[in-house]
Write a structure and sequence with these properties.
The complex is a heterodimer. Chain A is 78% helix and 0% strand. By secondary structure, chain A is mainly α. Chain A has two domains: 2-57, no CATH class; 74-309, MetI-like fold (Orthogonal Bundle). Chain B has helices at residues 43-51, 93-103, 108-122, 137-150, 167-184, 195-201, 219-224, 229-234, 271-274; strands at residues 4-12, 18-27, 32-36, 58-63, 66-67, 78-81, 155-159, 187-192, 204-209, 212-217, 241-250, 253-257, 263-265, 281-286, 291-292, 302-314, 319-325, 328-334, 346-351, 356-358. A six-stranded mixed β-sheet of chain B has the order 6-7-8-3-9-10, sandwiched between helices. A five-stranded antiparallel β-sheet of chain B has the order 13-12-11-14-20. In chain B, α3 packs across α4. The chains are: A mainly alpha, B alpha+beta.
Chain lengths: 310, 366
């Protein structure tokens, strides 16, 4: 329409003015102008800080000199940082797998409850996810705290010896994972529950008639139908869990002996507490390329399946 | 292949609502039986009980002589075609059809042979590698039928399989289903709300209403000798006309007093049959094709009277007249060459050899 109108314009106008008007009337121009506020917000709050962080990570400690990938080289040489990489990967992968499994199990249980009770249970099971993690982690800290640990007190009833929850490296790692799983499983649960509800009942009926047992229905109907939600939820949770800061900070503060640090808490320690901002930036950017590649492949798979199947 | 026996089957839901109220039905081996009725009549529930997707509250269902009440669907050796096809969206057409056989651990080459054979019967061989999303509604329906055929089950169950297709495709697939049944001859139970589908497909039609079976019989029998007013009105399109009338006894012969002062003589051979209704209000039922322009006047029991058409619907091969009879609309089927004009009275002839008298209290056709 707009183009047609432009063609019909009288020729008397100056060529410069006409082309400017034409430019302003183009659909793409209008679309660009309308999305400009969003572009500004994303640019200001996402792109610029990200670009600045990348720039920072390539400066020396005093931020006076460009040293390329120097910070990353120094980090990889450091034993502590290699430990942080191991701990971050161990923490994120274990926690995400556990959250996914527990979330799936909970979603399945909820899905098969009668509609009446379901709402109540769904609400209760979502509580861990809505409490600010810094607060709930403090609660967990009290339960793990060596002197008055309520968990140890319960264990003692069953004659189980006291567990050094936060004092011994492996127990501390497990504690951090327990709290993260407790906090994050409800998110998986609610996503999976929505996915379960979207699987048409007739597919299960068709499978039952085709001869499928309960397990086979799960294997051949439920899981394939939920693949997209599972991929996206796991990807999202992996990114968030890799970036987790508050649980580690409150529960162990990276200790004992820096063995429970993850990227975010270590970046804070190096960048803010120790004052080496460029190296802190390098720590926090470390996982970015790896996660970006994972995200690319996961989202490509989701896209392809959506086109082919839904 | 096998017969299906339904004995005193009841389906009651929580709160005591009965969807199926104790029905009995024997379906013979190789037979094509259609359950038909308005929505909520219990036909789908009955089918789902045969499939094992609904529990049977009381009574008994047997397939091939074996009571299946407590046998899960997978062990009943049945196959079902759903209204929404229920194809697995993540599997190719081949895998959709092979799924039941794979679960039953058939050898790979046997699965391939059966799927390819079914694909040939249904003319979907070029589609085997596609996903359901890439198929049209008719093609999906064929795949759903293919999934049933490859299993070579004792019984096919169809749950309104054509309802999601457009009118043209529905007619085409109807023929297709009949052809497939003539090829594989598997005992078939087919549920539909469309009486045309029921009439065209069935060896025997089962008309259901409010959870009970109104009548069972071959399509022609249901059409010409309905047992109840419901069956008379449900089977046939346009539906049978029901006109309130009074049965009078006059000097040894019965006659019907209709609105508009029309008096019809009851054929002599029916006097005994309707005698008990003398002096009572009845419903006079007559199909539109038996209410025509005056013709065959030399035959017996043709009554001619005058009515005024309100609406005229030319259909091409015939013309439908909607006539007005003191507050009652009456439909008549006339030859398209017969002149008719809205609002101008014309002569119509009722063929009383095909009349029905219904007791308005019991709803039974006498």
């Amino acid at each position: 329409m707009a183009d047609g109108a432009t063609l019909a314009m009288p020729r008397a106008e100056a060529p410069g003015g006409a082309s400017l008007k034409r430019f302003a009337r183009r659909r793409s121009t209008i679309a660009f102008l309308m999305t400009l506020p969003l572009i500004a917000v994303i640019g200001g709050l996402v792109a610029w800080p990200a670009g600045y962080a990348i720039w920072l990570s390539m400066l020396n400690r005093r931020m006076t000199q460009f040293i390329g990938l120097g910070n990353f080289e120094i980090l990889l040489d450091s034993e502590t940082f290699r430990m942080v990489i191991f701990q971050s990967v161990f923490f994120a992968v274990t926690a995400v797998i556990l959250k996914a499994l527990i979330g799936f199990w909970l979603a399945h249980m909820l899905h098969h409850l009668p509609a009446k009770g379901q709402k109540k249970w769904r609400g209760m099971l979502l509580v861990p996810w809505v409490i600010p993690p810094a607060l709930s982690t403090l609660g967990w800290w009290w339960m793990f705290e060596p002197t008055y640990s309520s968990i140890n007190w319960v264990l003692a009833i069953f004659a189980v010896p006291a567990v050094p929850w936060l004092g011994e490296p492996w127990w501390a790692r497990i504690s951090v994972i327990i709290v993260n799983v407790w906090y994050g499983a409800p998110f998986f649960m609610i996503m999976y529950l929505a996915a379960l509800k979207s699987v048409p009942e007739q597919l299960y009926e068709a499978a039952a008639i085709d001869g499928a047992t309960g397990w086979q229905k799960l294997r051949y109907v439920t899981l394939p139908m939920m693949r997209n939600i599972i991929s996206i939820t796991v990807l999202f949770s992996l990114i968030v869990t890799f970036a987790n800061y508050d649980i580690v900070r409150v529960l162990t503060n990276g200790g004992p002996r820096d063995l429970t640090h993850v990227f975010a808490s270590y970046a804070f320690q190096v960048g803010v507490l120790a004052g080496n901002i460029p190296r802190g930036a390098a720590v926090s950017l470390f996982m970015f390329p790896i996660l970006a590649v994972i995200a690319f492949f996961v989202l490509r798979g989701v896209n392809r399946r959506t086109k082919e199947e839904l | 292949m096998a017969q299906v026996s339904i004995r005193k089957v009841v389906k009651a839901y929580e709160g005591g609502v009965q969807a199926v109220k104790g029905i009995d039905l024997e379906i013979a081996d190789h037979e094509f039986v259609v359950l038909v009725g308005p929505s909520g009549c219990g036909k789908s529930t009955t089918l789902r009980m045969i499939a094992g997707l609904e529990e049977i509250t009381s009574g008994e269902i047997a397939i091939g002589g074996m009571v299946v009440n407590d046998i899960p669907p997978r062990d009943r050796d049945i196959a079902m075609v759903f209204q929404n096809y229920a194809l697995y969206p993540h599997m190719s057409v081949y895998d959709n059809m092979a799924f039941g056989l794979t679960l039953r651990k058939f050898p790979k080459d046997e699965i391939k042979r059966r799927v390819e054979n079914a694909a040939r019967i249904l003319d979907i061989t070029p589609l085997l590698d596609r996903k359901p999303k890439a198929l049209s509604g008719g093609q999906r329906q064929r795949v759903a039928m293919g999934r049933a055929i490859v299993r070579d089950p004792k019984v096919f169950l169809f749950d309104e399989p054509l309802s999601n297709l457009d009118a043209k495709l529905r007619v085409q697939m109807r023929t297709e289903i009949k052809k497939v049944h003539q090829t594989v001859k598997t005992t078939t139970v087919y549920v539909t709300h469309d009486q045309v589908e029921a009439m065209t497909l069935a060896d025997r039609v089962v008309v259901m209403n409010h959870g009970v079976i109104e009548q069972v019989g071959p399509p022609q029998e249901l059409y010409h000798s309905p047992n109840t007013r419901f069956v008379a009105g449900f089977i046939g399109s346009p539906a049978m006309n029901f006109i309130p009338a009074r049965m009078e006894n006059g000097s040894g012969a019965l006659r019907l007093n209709l609105p508009n002062g029309i008096v019809l003589p009851v054929p002599a051979e029916r006097t005994a049959r309707y005698g008990a209704m003398a002096g009572k209000e009845v419903l006079f039922g007559i199909r539109p094709e038996h209410l025509t322009e005056p013709k065959n006047l030399d035959r017996q029991n043709i009554a001619v009277f005058e009515l005024t058409p309100e609406v005229i619907e030319p259909m091409g091969m015939e013309t439908l007249l909607h006539l007005w009879m003191q507050g009652h609309e009456v439909c008549s089927r006339i030859d398209p060459t017969t002149p008719a004009e809205p609002g101008r009275p014309m002569q119509v002839a009722a063929d009383l050899n095909h009349m029905h008298i219904i007791d308005p209290e019991s709803g039974r056709v006498l």
